[in-house]
Amino acid sequence: MKRSKLVVGVVLLAAVFISSIVFAGNIAINGSTTVLPIAQKVAEAFMKEHPDVKISVSGGGSGNGIKALIDGTTDIADASRAMKDEEVEMAKGKGTKPVEFVVAYDCIVPVVHPDNPLKNITVDQLKAIYMGKVKNWEEIGGSDKPVVVISRDTSSGTYEVWEEKVMKKERVYPGALLTASSGAIIQTVSKNSNAIGYVGHGYVDKSVKSLSVNGIMGSKETTLNKTYPISRPLFMYTRIQPAGDIKTFMDYVLNKDKGQKLVEISGFVPLN
After folding, report:
1. Residues 225, 113 share a domain
2. Are 110 and 220 part of one and the same domain?
3. One-letter-per-residue 3-state SS of the chain
4. Are residues 217 and 241 in the same domain?
5. Average pLDDT for residues 199-219, to the nearest whole number?
6. Residues 166-195 pLDDT 10s
């Protein structure tokens, strides 16, 4: 009799433990380092209003976030580029039907050290630099110094947009230094007076100088009116049509008086 009561007790404790996991209200967000500041700010504000929900946010690149979504190891994937057709098919093959949400707009800006005298650069010049054809700043109106090229790695959504809009499908030349995050590009460029990199507008700070492209400075206005040549939407993907806490969170992200205000505070362009 005592043994049967013990077994029942263990089963009940296990049931309580399992239910606490199921209903803990945990949300995992993974992916783009560009979208990372948005996700962090919104998650922090959301948890203050919903203390029963715990949200973990990590970066690693759009490709890694989408892979985690496909594998079922994250609830929300941040991405600075749209999911590819083959990724959607892979997700469907694993029983996942990704739902796309545009959460903000952004422009990718070339950044140099503040001591660099250059103020403007053309798309063609950027392409030539990243193909390794321009090796000295003097060739495009700068000082007589070597160009140090900093790029994102190929798992980055920012890299893929740069490849599409600047490189026109040409590959970045092998001599470029590859970094794993937008923050790493800012740090590297800020410490090297000969370097050039590219980041989402929200990452630009006083430690670097952004260049206008084709005579147009990247800004909220030029992103929305599409006059700036390297603009893009930013995404969050859920594994299926969101429900429960995930739906509440996505509604919060898209709310013009809540999440979208935090998008602007983060340095990006809100949907409204």
Report:
1. yes
2. yes
3. CHHHHHHHHHHHHHHHHHHHHHCCCEEEEEECCCCHHHHHHHHHHHHHHCCCCEEEEECCCHHHHHHHHHHCCCCEEEECCCCCHHHHHHHHHCCCCCEEEEEEEEEEEEEECCCCCCCEECHHHHHHHHCCCCCEHHHHCCCCCECEEEEECCCCHHHHHHHHHCCCCCCCCCCCEEECCHHHHHHHHHCCCCEEEEEEHHHCCCCCEECEECCECCCHHHHHCCCCCCEEEEEEEECCCCCHHHHHHHHHHHCCCCHHHHHHHCCCECCC
4. no
5. 95
6. 999 899 999 999 998 999 999 999 999 999
